[in-house]
Design goal:
With 163 residues, this protein is of the alpha+beta class. It is built from three helices and six strands. The strands form two sheets. It has a four-stranded antiparallel sheet with strand order 1-2-3-6, covered by helices on one side. Strands 4-5 form a two-stranded antiparallel sheet. The chain starts with a helix and ends in a 46-residue tail after the last strand.
Length: 163
């Protein structure tokens, strides 16, 4: 799947295709053509890809299309997790290798350049929070500022007359 398609899945955005029954080269010939910048928009060339992608997208979003996104997280490693209000989590992997997302109740493997719906009850572990130091612990030397008076370098002694 392309990154543009995966972004649509990640953000719950509708997919869009621009196709034509006319051959792309004919459409590109006219200077004024709005299709001059397209590489290929021939319907017959793209028909099976469009139908496959539409089916994948529709199967995923049929139950999610009227739900609000409750959470969206980017994980290290170019993977995103989008959670909808019913708890459904969609995991999108932009990598060319599979990625294992560690969950509280088990891991989910996401194939390369693809997406999966996590099993019911899937949740990411809470982010690691570094605890503050207890109040009774003494600060380290690097955390304390020491104020010492230092004399400026290369300055004459106040008692000298400079001669």
């Amino acid at each position: 799947l392309t990154d543009n398609f995966l972004r649509s899945v990640e953000f719950g955005a509708n997919i869009h295709f621009t196709l034509s029954k006319k051959e792309t080269s004919v459409l590109k010939e006219a200077e004024w053509s709005q299709y001059a910048n397209y590489f290929s928009i021939d319907f017959d060339t793209w028909k099976s890809d469009v139908l496959d992608n539409y089916k994948k997208y529709n199967d995923l979003h049929a139950d999610l299309q009227n739900q609000l996104i409750q959470d969206h997280i980017r994980l290290p490693g170019n993977v995103a997790v989008t959670t909808y209000e019913d708890g459904t989590a969609v995991l999108v992997n932009y990598n060319r290798v599979e990625y294992t997302v560690k969950g509280v109740n088990g891991d989910v493997i996401v194939p390369p350049k693809s997406f999966v719906t996590a099993p019911s009850g899937f949740a990411l572990p809470p982010p690691e929070v570094k605890p503050d130091k207890p109040a009774d612990e003494e600060p380290s030397e690097t955390e304390t500022e020491t104020e010492t008076e230092t004399e400026p370098e290369n300055q004459p002694d106040p008692g000298e007359d400079g001669s």
